[in-house]
Design brief:
Layout: E1 3-7, E2 10-13, E3 18-25, E4 34-39, E5 46-51, E6 58-60, E7 68-73, E8 78-83, E9 92-100, E10 103-104, E11 112-117
Parallel strand pairs: 2-11
Antiparallel strand pairs: 1-3, 3-8, 4-5, 4-9, 5-6, 7-8, 9-10, 9-11
Length: about 120
């Protein structure tokens, strides 16, 4: 059974930075496209960033382009999200998941809370 363990969230002032990590177990991590998603209070969960399993090509939702960077370490079965220039609208619970044809593939983990104060 796949396990997703997100960490690294916290409270930060606007303009600050955080680095999120997601450790994956129970699957051959290196064979999966991975993504970060987030869910703000009262809103649906949305896609944030993704990284291809083989090429390393990345993609981002427009609202985070130029501020967030997704990366992966296949040896550690971990995907990262570096978040710079954080804004209050980035406040959400952040989740990682495998991504196939744009959709999440596995059951969700517990997520990690990111709160950006103005």
């Amino acid at each position: 059974q796949v396990q997703l363990v997100e960490s690294g969230g916290g409270l930060v002032q606007a303009g600050g930075s955080l680095t999120l990590s997601c450790a994956v177990s129970g699957r051959t991590f290196s064979r999966y496209n991975m993504g970060w998603f987030r869910q703000a209070p009262g809103k649906e969960r949305e896609f944030v960033a993704a990284i291809n399993w083989g090429t390393g090509i990345t993609s981002y939702v427009d609202s985070v382009k130029g501020r967030f960077t997704i990366s992966r370490d296949n040896a550690k079965s971990t995907v990262y999200l570096v978040m710079n220039s954080l804004k209050p609208e980035d406040t959400a619970i952040y989740y990682c998941n495998a991504r196939e044809r744009g959709a999440p593939l596995w059951d969700w983990g517990q997520g990690t809370q990111v709160t950006v104060s103005s």
